[in-house]
Amino acid sequence: LTVTYNNLYTNLFDFYPLYIGAIMLLMLIWSALYIFLAVYVERVHPGAFGVARPWNYLFQRKNNKKIKPVPQNGLKSVPLKMFNEKWIESKPSSGVSGVSIQNLTKTFGDFKAVSNLSLDFYENEVCCLLGHNGAGKTTTTFMLVGMLEPTSGCIFVNDLDNKTNLEAVRKNIGFCPQSDILYDELTVREHLKLVAKIRQMPRTEIERSTDRILALINLRKDAQTLAKNLSGGMKRRLSIGMSLVGDPKILIFDEPTSGIGTTNPKHRREIWDVIRILKHDKENRRTIVFTTHYLDEADVLADRIAIMTAGELQAHGTPDFLKQQTDLEYRLFMDKDAGCQEEIVRTHIQQYIPNVIFDRESVSELRYGILRGQEENVQQLISSLDKAAHLQIKNYGIATITTEDVFLQLVEEAHYDKPDTIANGLQSHPQKKDLITKVFGQHEKVKGFSLRLIQYYALLIKRLIISRRQYITTLGFLLLPLLIEILTVAVLPTPTQIQASLLQNDHVKGASVKLIPSIYNQPQQQTVVVYGNNNGSNNLNNLLTYLSNNQNVNVDQISSDTVMSYVQQQYTQTYAVFIYKYQIAQSLYNNLSTPSLTFDAFFSSVNYHTAAVTLGVSMTQLFQFYAGSTAKQIITTNMPLITTSTTSSSSADLLNKLLCFDALPMVLFGFLNSILVMLFTIAEL
Questions:
Q1: Would you give the DSSP letter of residue 92?
Q2: Which residues have CB under 8 Å from 648's CB, separation 6+?
Q3: What DSSP letter does each residue of 56-83 carry, written as one string?
Q4: In the chain, fewer beta carbons within 10 Å around the N or the C end?
Q5: Would you identify the CATH topology of the domain 513-638?
Q6: Residue 263: which residues within 8 A CB-CB, separation 6 or more?
Q7: How far apart are CA 642 and CA 275, in angstroms?
Q8: What is the pLDDT of residues 315-340, one digit of tens each?
């Protein structure tokens, strides 16, 4: 039955008052209800990412008023540790806080990723969260944008609490995650438009905003390029551009140059240029926060630097303020000649700067640290070095300290206070790097195809070591296929034997049915309705002959009414026997000018197998038409596998059915193999 708007709420059978229109309407109602429940559950229980709302948030009054960022729930500021006090710069008198973090803590089980973090990010400034891998930078950014719910503490974005005003907060935030979230089959322009529509920007502003962002991130020439064809640097710029859509006032970039590396400084510089442009746009009063573990990146871009270690704030202030807190003021670099001796050089320097600090020595370089208050002595030292040819020094240079020196001193202080806090993720001391350089720098690097062979060889050795340690699992992989094959061949009967045995079963024999129209001749002879638009058609004559002579059924041939209208008339006249009389029908549409066969097949959904019977009659028609012979026919037999409780148990019944299709060995092997693979993988982890 073809469904149209005219028959959505009509039914052929009065005793079965179910309409297609009613079903579709109920589906729409249930779909709307399920969508509502899904959104509600997602907001109340967001899972790993997101901030949970109270169960009755639908009945709470919405409040987007800005409030003063003060600690809530009786939280009090946690005093900084003694070694951190000098590293925290006081709030600027003219600074307006765009983001305020107070006593923020996030724990995962027993692990504390962020611990009592209190920090302010100011408008018209770029603040950098600096720290090693695992310091808690990404976790902090996730809490800022509402992807993670804090264990305790408060976050205020433009004076809005992100716990109670998360939607309003997210409208003010543009976030660039550490990993690019791009669609391979969308172009650069389509990505920006997609985000614009998600942010519900007006149609009139989408194109203008897209063009402006494309120019800003320098991707105007690549606007129609698919994301999968972009380089790594282009993808990062596109991710930054997506965070700029909607002109948010708070921009958070989680390691914007991650994945680019230091081998291609051009791409890093392009991203730096984008951040610089945003930084100098004072009219929009943006608050820009980015995380990094590159010290030079923080030194170049940041107005303020917040250094984190093991989830705790170690320092916060402008780069000049942080450098003023270090013990050193200058670094002295020297390029050694072949006969240069460090002891002689140090003795010469100590004549002018007695308390000079030896930093490190490498194969070709010497480094020293000069404490503060030695400006005059430094000038005298420089004059003497120009005349000291006996020191065997090629070149020398002096520079003020960098953010790297600040970071190293903080790490050293944190190490003395809590040795375990920097065990995960910190780089070794510079002297250790020099030792590595001395040991491995003497050997020539392997490149090209030889490097690939060595890598494959190393992986093979690793696999052999793991296999030797997990010898039981290895033996299982080797012996399991052999054991299953022996079991299948020697113990279990073959599928042919089982099928032959089942065919001799009386229950199976009694259930065997040929799927032809005459199977519905009880309690009365079956009638097949046939409609033909041309009585002289050979196809129609062949079908009538096949049904009348070979199938032993009655045929109601019609030419004026359609099949459905005719069946409905018969139903109203012979209601009592209608359900048993008509099961299948066909409408033939033939054109005598060209040899063709076109027909529609109908079946009743009341009895079993009607779809298969109709399909068998249709396939026979096609077979006879293309074979050119009315003697041809296709007969389908249904032979179900039937067992009883007296002959076998339910488990034996299932086993027989699996064996009949030769599925048991494959199922057994796949099940055992998956268990071994899982155990093997867990063992490696």
A1: P
A2: 656
A3: TGGGSPP----------TT--PPPPPGG
A4: C
A5: abc type-2 transporter like fold (3.40.1710)
A6: none
A7: 74
A8: 888 888 888 888 788 888 888 888 88
